[in-house]
UniProtKB/TrEMBL annotation:
Keywords: Lyase. It catalyses: (4aS,6R)-4a-hydroxy-L-erythro-5,6,7,8-tetrahydrobiopterin = (6R)-L-erythro-6,7-dihydrobiopterin + H2O. One of its GO terms (biological process) is tetrahydrobiopterin biosynthetic process. The lineage of its organism: Bacteria, Pseudomonadati, Pseudomonadota, Betaproteobacteria, Burkholderiales. It comes from Duganella sacchari. This is Putative pterin-4-alpha-carbinolamine dehydratase.
Amino acid sequence: MQKLELSQLPARLVTVPAWAIAGDALSISREFVFADFVEAFAFMSAVALQSEKRNHHPEWSNVYNKVRITWTTHDASGLTQNDFDMALACDAAARGFGHAPV
């Protein structure tokens, strides 16, 4: 997949307003907060299944009820449409756990 140009990023970010572009413009990230660890882990499992299906995997961390996800495309050395598609998939999965759309 082709790396997005800097000029393309603002329009893509509008589709995932809760996500932030890193200062180097090579990744997007977001933190999700859930009711407890079990809910956070269930969310991670849902995202993991989508990641495997799409062969695009996040960088993430989990501390109790918090999950921080970063998307980047290493092969492209930056952001691609896949990253924004997966951010949308994360947002959709989170809605299943009571996260309201932003």
